[in-house]
Amino acid sequence: MSQIDWLSHLLQMINITGQLEVRCAYGAPWRVAWPQSAAHEIPYHVVLNGRAIIEDPELKTARELVGGDIVLLPHGSAHVLHDGSGRTPSHTYSRQSSAGWMVRENDGQGERLDMLCGRFFIGPPYDRLIRGYLPTNLVVRASDGHGEEGIGSASNHLASLVGLMRTESAGDRLGGYAILNALTSALFTLALRAASESEQPPAGLLALTGHPRLAPAISAMFADPARPWTLPDLADLCSMSRATFMRHFQDKLGRSALELLTDIRMSLAANELKKPAMTTEAVAELVGYQSVAAFRRVFTDKMGMTPGQWRRSARESQ
Hints:
about 325 residues; single chain; alpha+beta; globular; 13 helices; 4-stranded antiparallel sheet; Arc Repressor Mutant, subunit A; Jelly Rolls
């Protein structure tokens, strides 16, 4: 299986939607603080032109972003964006575009910044899966590549996507808001693909995709999670000994292959439990459990509620 297969399987399990909220057009000095997001929200920022410093007050990290950079915050961490000058920010004005997003401008006369800000929405309990396997901050670059390899790269596709977002957000054309939100959803997938293709993929699932010897095991677990996989089975797929497979997997992901398999199974189970015709027994068997009691125990441990409680909660939210 190709590396993208596991990502397709993951996003089929997890319904992710996106929304553009703000287009920032600032002149230095400027500064914007974003609070901790709700559990089911992932903020994002796309720097169209100019530069910005993003700081994480809790981790005490700072990074410069330039035109073409896209940052996702899968853990919803509180963060600050600023121009880096340290000067008192200029007064900011906000106005609502007719299409639905906010436009923020200021009085600053310094270096200009053009940036799109929004968020992705992930319904519970899948936010736990995303936050458990993606880094705190994910930065990727949209760049126009040259030659055959550049044309097909994820960063080149991101550049085209960001170009469309820039065009749509610059005016109030018919359907612009709907188009931007659809492009935002595509942005999530392309950003993960670009990160996995980078020379140094971030920790978690994205690091595993950059480890070709482990790819067969990951693809197999996503493609057929109900199969009674054992560590020797998965190690054999990767042509490794059990000990070597466990070591490589733990080093890259920070948890075991069987932990990942369990999380995949429970996410699938959560989807199936929403269906009125599916009994708990049928769902347990579908995701690889012969014992309903064992399934209930694992589901409750992972999701923080019993299958029955989750079923009722899902129906109420629908």
